[in-house]
Task: structure prediction
Amino acid sequence: MWKIFLVLSILHIIFVFIAIISNIFLKKRENLKDITIWPKISILIPAYNEEKNIENKINNIFLQDYPKECIEILVGSDGSTDKTVEKAKKFENVKVFDFDRMGKASVLNKLFSQSSGDYILVSDADTEFILKDSLKKAVLSNADMVTGIVGHNELPGLKKYWNLEFNIRNFESKFGKCVVSSGTFIFVKREFFPQLPKEIIADDLFIPLSVIKNGGKTIQNDEIICKTEEEVYTFKKYFKKKIRIVRGGIQTFFFFLNHKLDFLTITFFFLHKIARWYMALFFSLFLLLFNLNWFFYIFVLSLILFIFSKKFRILIIDLFVPVIATIIEIINPTKFGGWDD
Result:
């Protein structure tokens, strides 16, 4: 039994190693080629109390090197209590909707129903596109869903973690099965855009899995670079955010258990997400069964580091929150796909 837990605990590490090696030796760049007629793009911006970001967001879109007549911008306020709606309405040719509180997923569904583009781009209100040809790169990426990356200099939080994450997504993209996207840039062909269940939290996970389930190709294009607002987290706030992120992932996982996904997608999902979420649990069970003394020594050392080291407390949150989040989600399933308040 302990051998099984040992294997499970290192599966994610092996997967990351394979992804990095493959990206080093199998790099592929798409060359931009101009086309005569550019398709219409509907940009959906769900927003909750984004008065400090919404104007910069819209101005940033206007800077894109893309035919202005082919861009449709739709802002959906999810019951904002600040000046989000007022500031968004200052712009001409921007459709602004002031919805009652309904959750991000429902806002996206409403915005999609009001859109008319050949492509749908979902992008968070607190993010900006670094390059002016981001929309052109997305159109020319030859995929049914394209996601971008957050640039190295703009990465909030743990840069090493995100660089590993983007390496994994690049590896999955070689097979057209990138199972996770970034809320900064989710670009989808209209016919592949899914109806989101109202309780869904992780739209950035739900959307690519839905596209794959329906026979679409999903990729990450690391030439589409975004930046996002960097937040300062207290221990409590970071813990709450991680619980929410993982609950969203668990929730989406349970949803797709009832939908047939191909073997490769299931494998990527397991190695990318499940193996990472429960790696610490698997390793702890391995030590507990393999050598009780070692388990005790590591537990005591971890407890001391947890008390005296802030960085170690953050690491422990990252490692063990998935277990807590899974228990919470099983006992009390999420019923509202809201926002971080």
Notes: Residues 2-16+236-331 form one domain. The chain has twelve helices and eight strands. The chain has two domains: 2-16+236-331, 27-233. The mean pLDDT is 86.
